[in-house]
Amino acid sequence: MNSPLQPGSLAGKTALVTGSSRGIGADTVKYFAAAGANVVINYRAKAPRAEKLVAEIEAAGGQAIAIGADLTDPASVTAMMDAVHERFGGLDILVLNASGGMESGMGEDYALKLNRDAQVNVLTRGTELMGPGGRVVFVTSHQAHFIRTVPTMPEYEAVASSKRAGEDALRALIPELEAKGIGFTVVSGDMIEGTITATLLERAAPGAIDARKEAA
């Protein structure tokens, strides 16, 4: 695949991408690895899928490890960061890609726990491994970023609101990050068909994705 990063541009850097065993997260770690970074693939439950991605990156000459962690569990996040420190000595790039809230069998507060509270904790723990010049990237959707001004699908509204709450909580930390020389960027994009969020939304409300496109 064509990479937006120049080969070698991230040589010597270490990047952790949450929720990166599939979808956008997986593409992101592959781009980083192709640019020379050591990459950490985070997953919640699907170890074989994450290890397959590690093998793919290593076969292409990159450096990668997979670490399972429940981001809503502070102890699990601490263990993940300890493993990153032990393997690579520090962290240069943290991409907060993982999100959720439409999964079945989770508590009513799960979306807020994952999309706000966990994001803040992962950033806090991750930036402890960073020095000046580090970068944190928060990945969100247009549906969440603009939730206060642009209505979204009813089935997605609670998740979108929780992701916006997470973005706000992270933005509140910008002065602390700047004092440490760490940059913060928000990347927002439209919902992508075939990703887990779009798949779960279509399952919960058949036809919702097509209806949204027709209304756009």
Structure report:
By secondary structure, the chain is of the alpha/beta class. The protein has a single domain, classed as NAD(P)-binding Rossmann-like Domain (Rossmann fold), CATH 3.40.50.720. The protein contains nine helices and six strands, in the order βαβαβαβαβαααβαα. The protein has helices spanning 23-34, 47-59, 74-88, 110-127, 142-145, 157-171, 174-179, 196-204, 208-215, and strands at 14-17, 38-43, 63-68, 93-96, 135-141, 183-189. The chain has a six-stranded parallel beta sheet, with helices on both faces. α3 (74-88) runs parallel beside α4 (110-127) and α4 (110-127) packs parallel to α6. It is globular, with a radius of gyration of 17 Å.
Globally, the shape reads: globular
Q: Which radius of gyration do the C-alpha atoms yield?
A: 17 Å
CATH superfamily: NAD(P)-binding Rossmann-like Domain
What fraction of residues sit in β-strands? Answer: 15-25%
Secondary structure category: alpha/beta
Helical amount = 40-55%
Mean pLDDT, nearest integer?
89
Per-chain topology:
Blueprint: E1 14-17, H1 23-34, E2 38-43, H2 47-59, E3 63-68, H3 74-88, E4 93-96, H4 110-127, E5 135-141, H5 142-145, H6 157-171, H7 174-179, E6 183-189, H8 196-204, H9 208-215
Parallel strand pairs: 1-2, 1-4, 2-3, 4-5, 5-6
Helix pairs in contact: 3-4, 4-6
